[in-house]
Structures are given as C-alpha cells and as structure tokens.
Amino acid sequence: MRRLLFLNGIKAFEAAARTGSFAAAGAELNVSAAAVSRMVHLLEERLGVALFERKANRLVTTAAGRAYQNGLTPIFDALASLTAQVTAPSSVRVLTIGVGPTFAMKWLIPRLADFRKEDPDIDVRITTGGAAVPFGEDWSCGIKLGGGEWSGLIAEPLFAADLLPVCAPRLANALKRPGDLKGPALLRVAHSPDDWPSWLEAAGTARISARGPEFEFYGQALQAAVDGLGIAMGIRPYIDDDLAAGRLVAPFALSVPKGMRWYLVYRGFSTAQRDFAAFRRWIIRAAAEPAARRRGHRHAG
Q1: Would you say the pTM of this structure is higher than 0.70?
Q2: CA distance 130 to 215
C-alpha cells in the first residue's frame, strides 16, 4: 500500500526549498510564511530528519533537504503537466520550447515550417533568453549548449559546436592564410571570450588578438559579418544556412571544437506526451540532416 506522508507539508517544503524562503513559498501557496514554517517543522518531525538550516536571513537546505527537493520538484512538475493535459480542451495542443535567441533565429525558426507540415495542430511557442537561462517551469523542452549535465533533466545530443571563422565573400579574397587576420577586424561575442583565442592557437597564430567590435549574442556578430564589418567566429549550426546560401564564406578549412555540444533537454515524464514525442522525433532527424542537402546548395568556402 502506498504511504503518503503529510502532503501539505511536502508541498510547503518543496516550495520553500525551491524559492529560498518561507515568505515566497507562502505567496505561491496562498498561505502565510508562518503557516509554511509550521508545516515544514511538522514534516521534519514526522520524517525525523532536518531539512533546513535556519539562519538569520535565509534558508539553507541540509544534504537531506537538497536530495528531497531534487526528487520532489520533478514530481510536482509532472503532476502540474499531467493536470494541464487532462483539463485542457482536446483541441488545444501547445509545445513551449526554451532556446537562446541566436539558435531560434539561425536554426529553429527557419525549420519550423517543416515541423508544422508534419504536425499542423501543435501550437509551437518559443521563449528565448541568454545562454545561462535555467530550464523554465512551463517549458515542454529546451535546446541548450553545454556539457550535457543538467540536474533533473534528460539531455540528448543534437550537434557538435564547432568554431569556424566566417566573413562576407568580398572580405575573404584577402585572407589566404590565418596569419592574414588582423585583430581589429575580428568580431567578438561578449559571453564567449575564449572562441577566438582557441581557434587562433589551433591555427598557429596565437600572437593575433581579437580586438574588433564586441556584441552580446552570436547572431549580432554574424549579421555584422554578413554586412562586411569584419570576420566573425562562427559556431555550428548557426552558420550552416548562411554558408549554404553564400551570405557567408569560411576562408579557412580549420574548425575547432568548442568543447561543448547542443542538447535537447527535457524532463523524464515528457516522453509520455505525444506532442513532445513528435517534436523530439522531428528535431533529432532535422539535426542529422546537413544544411547543404536540405537547402539544395553547396557550402561556400
């Protein structure tokens, strides 16, 4: 027989551990902070385990508390998702994808029409943010660049993140070898300062230092390269379509692994959801298809 201990206390603890305070948990659960504190204290008594270290101005979970919260949060997320599925009208099919702005613009959005042809009844919604944005509670799945380890999430590899300098075709004529690169012409991305040094070292030209204009996102730097402002450090798959269409060229054959990969990330319970399952099948297939074959062009450079 299933033994469920004090569900109100469990909900109170999970909310407090996730938000970091009794007050925030109380606001979420529509009860007072004092009520949350009492429920958590009763839960600790029933479990016989301390879940929090209560400090002056903040809550700190104990080792047992962290382990409990790491297990509880996915369970409550799954319960919320299941409830939303059961209560939603049968005609409403929403898939929310969390992704960085450049990946959305350079790869995902140009291919969504293909997915829509396969599953026109699924309402795809894209939410964007920076590279460090955590997995959102309302996301069906996400696409993230990293090492493949995100707590509580399944990560399936999609692409290698290889680095390759790219520029407008008219600038490529003057670049016969890596030593022809000039520091002020090398466009930079603020959150990836190691890209150029890694590639230049691999090319044997570590004496060159990137000193060109700096941009917040890869997409901005790549657009600047298309416009002829300088040479950008491209990252796959951002550059695949621009190379295939001839908007950018790769003046050198050398590509260098970034040391990370792109992953499809999702919670374990998502595999039982038909809309996510359809998207997962599609994106894994699309990620394996070379841009040149899909677009009918040959890669430039």
Answers
A1: no
A2: 13
